[in-house]
Amino acid sequence: MRMTTWLSLAIGAAGIAALLWYMVATPGRSWSGPLPPLSEDDCALRDRLQAHVGAIASHEHNVWTLAALEAAARYIEAHLAEAGHAVRREEYRSDGTPVRNLIAEIKGATRADEIVIVGAHYDSVRGAPGANDNGSGAAAVLELARALRGWQPARTWRLVLFVNEEPPFFKSGEMGSQVHAAGVRARNERIVGMFSLETIGYYSDAPGSQHYPFPFGFFYPQRGDFLAFVANLHSRALLHKTIAAFRSHARFPSEGVAAPAWIPGVDWSDQASFWAAGFHALMVTDTAPYRYPHYHTKRDTPDKVDYERLARVVRGLEQAFRALDGSL
Which of 81, 106, 130, 231 is most solvent-facing, going by the fewest CB within 10 Å? Predict the structure, then answer.
């Protein structure tokens, strides 16, 4: 009996260890050491990102502050157009209020029916300006649109700014990404990957600045100086391709995990809408409340965003996406 008990415990422990390894193991090595100086182009990128966040997220903007939400939407439309993209509005009504997602596409040359979505929500939670959550992600999409103009990818790359990500719309039919994912499914579009840029502008070198849901604190750094790539188990292959591409091209620390969506934080953004529709998707994030002390508060203002490191992240994502076009 004792031997059987010990054998069962050993098998159980081995199973748990194997599952944890399956979730946390990722290809390549994260950048370590000092960050290189910003180039002249990256300094200009930093300044544009700061201007975008200031314009989009200096004030609360959602359906309860509709004029500010409309101003953010018009700013986004103007800058997508300025970058040379035709902008499509995906309009719908949210509890009687007209709202819209904003869409730009870079048409694929040889595999145009295979679509990659890069998205970020542009609304803020009620009572907060939403500079990091998610002015940082919205600004990143605008600068990716600028950087990728004139690109001729094999696949079609769709850039989407989603409305209504924040509560009480989160995981409801009035969530902008759910509206888009439902449309994608109805049109039988072939989505080969979706990337949600969610709260990507806050970094800290202070020991103990990074926190995790149990048990991930045993496996990841205690300093909040890295970009995180977060997938569900179904999207593990996409996670591995993405983090490998990022680590090959970006000189910025990165971590990745593929974990069950029920773990707190794993499904806290627009990628969850695409998981629910059966697509492979992941979230790119600074880990939001696990690092950012101003999350969902009135203190989430533009001065809290680290624009220098945000510029490094955006440049790294651009390079990773270019590389992924041929391997998804």
Answer: 81
